[in-house]
Amino acid sequence: MTLGPLIVQSDHTVLLEVAHPDAEDARHELAVFAELERAPEHIHTYRITRLGLWNARAAGHTADEIVATLDRHAKFPVPTQVSGEIAETMRRYGRLTIERADPDPRSDASHRAPDASSQPAGSEAPPTGPSRLVLRSEDPAILREVSAAKKVAPLLGGRLDEQRIEVLPWARGQLKQELVARGWPAEDLAGYTPGEPYDIELDESGWQLRDYQRRAVDAFETGGSGVVVLPCGAGKTLVGAGAMAAVGAKTLILVTNTVSARQWRNELLRRTTLSEDEIGEYSGQSKEIRPVTIATYQILTSRRKGEYAHLSLLSAQDWGLIVYDEVHLLPAPVFKLTADLQARRRIGLTATLVREDGREGDVFSLIGPKRYDAPWKDIEAQGFIAPAACFEVRVDLPESERYEYSIASDQDRYRLASSASTKQTLARRIVERHPGESVLVIGQYIDQLESMAEALNAPLITGQTPVDERERLFQAFRDGEEPLLVVSKVANFSVDLPDASVAIQISGSFGSRQEEAQRLGRLLRPKAGGASASFYTLVTRDTVDQDFAQNRQRFLAEQGYSYTILDADQL
Helicase C-terminal domain spans which residues (predicted)? Predict the structure, then answer.
């Protein structure tokens, strides 16, 4: 019998032997419930987390399935305490539920509001007339435990009976956050306000939703609010459009920037029956409120005299659906706003649930659990995203810059290391290595980008570039008129550049895995003839730039990409 590629340890870490012939299958199954922590060349380390197990449970996986996965791939017997704790952790999900109850406390204690998952999309789950939210459990001891907690008690009203406690009307979101923090994630069965009905249909003439996109829409429709995880370039916007058609109500779409808003608008006009008059843009440049309104996170979180000036947008229409694009980038203030929107159906779209601020639990609580997740390599194998070769190319920090680096503060060292002048020459050599291809040079620091754009004789796009000029340059890139662009992090998010085949990453946000996902995603639109994309990261050797690069590699390893390390001289 062949020994498997996994070693499961009693501290809930799982070691994956990368060279093992079954490693790819094991990695694929581990990704459902475990998080990759370290990804050196030969042994990758995963950790089984509570949140990962709860997301797996919400997506329909069972503890028996997960333990069976570990048993099947383990080199040695799985510690019994790990198997037991997996079962116990997953059993906690749904032991508490948030439901609707009649206003009369003497009503039948066994009454359960209809599960949102059993409701037709857009229908009203709560009963007509006034009704209250209750926190319910079949186990009174659990209810007593959580209701006595210092941060939970102020969110609850009176006890209705042994199994139900009233939830204060405004506290639905905050209660879910606190219960997750205490290890008792509540399943929200209270249903949703249907919102004002609005006819939105997909116009599938000449195209149709791919199988995985349809499965994602179905998982959202039957499961209630939640998050769909798909690679960049795999059509998250179409999943959003499918969800809008399924719900059939006025919709608010929140996006990262104005360019993204306009791309959403164009895609909805192409793929649905919506007309231009039915879609509004609410941003720094325009304040249109229409049955489908696309707003930027920036405008929603902008303040005037200490107040959020545009919160009225959230109640400007009777929204039946709120779409959070790039939900892993949700600004912290929006979490508070989202806590107030628990009566509306919500769908989050993202390429990765990783948040560098550690607020994955808040996404789980306030947007909803993961409803669908399609591994990048699976979609690549189907030909819907391009294969990509990933390279880390190491350069030396010149002696003339080494002294300044050695005496710099910790805060400045990363900027100095990642802005090494030797990266200019290396970037030029990589561009020359790919004649006739569309190349993006992506970085973090404006002075570095300005110098790079001048050295490469290429246009530069930053946050200071007017939106119209950005769109003109992006369109010129799409049309092949500009084969090379130097861009700041404004190109990380929701920018559709289908012909980009080479990306050169010269600096980034301190090893952010979010950013790695977004930047690699710029290259993943399918290429003519099935050509592969090339993703280069330029790293300054023996500096903090190299240290942070190790964190970025974790994302690539999570998705099954190999990462070739080269010396600059090898190019």
Answer: 422-571
